[in-house]
Amino acid sequence: MTTIAEIKQTMQGKMDQSIAAFKxxxxxxxxxxxxxxxxxxVQVDYYGSMMPISQVANVSLLDARTISVQPWxxxxxxxIEKAIRESDLGLNPASMGDLIRVPMPPMSEERRRDMTKLVxxxxxxxxxAVRNLRRDANEHxxxxxxxxxxxxxxxxxxxxxxxxxxxxHIAEIDxxxxxxxxxxxxx
Length: 187
Known about the structure:
The protein is an alpha+beta fold. It folds into two domains: 4-28 and 108-185, Orthogonal Bundle (Topoisomerase I, Chain A, domain 4), CATH 1.10.132; 36-103, Gyrase A, domain 2. The protein contains four helices and six strands; from the N terminus they run αββββαββαα. The strands form two sheets. A four-stranded antiparallel β-sheet has the order 3-4-6-5, with helices on one face. Strands 1-2 form a two-stranded antiparallel sheet. A hairpin with a 2-residue loop joins strand 3 and strand 4. Helix 1 (4-28) packs antiparallel against helix 3 (109-146) and helix 3 runs antiparallel to helix 4. The longest helix has 38 residues, at 109-146. The chain is elongated, with a radius of gyration of 22 Å. The termini are far apart. The model has no long low-confidence stretch (mean pLDDT 86).
């Protein structure tokens, strides 16, 4: 038997997860500025098994436009360089001894607009997820009222609180979008 408080708590947790997933997606969207998280999706062949670069090398920033990758083992440099070059990120790494430099190519105006469209579409997906959670929570509360476990006053109160939490999460998504768009359009 679930209570209204449990329904709200579950919804809040799932909405927080949606925001976390959206933030994670945003880190993968390229801006003109270098970000070590950009290489998180790149897998490299490490003795027959595919591993994320961060597990076979130290990934850090050299400067605002350059990521440095320092392999932990000799001989991994060429494999890491090849993995980055073949990824769909459009990056062109260059080896300097043991260090691999990954410069961020400057983005054209058109590419920047495409990136902001991508950010907005991802934001819309996150908002849809949050709204679906709101709908589910409200349906659970209605079921409690139907089963005579909660009153209609409880339902109205719960729906208002659910809406407040939803609005807060939607506003957070909008803030993340504004910050990411500013970062993308920055030359």
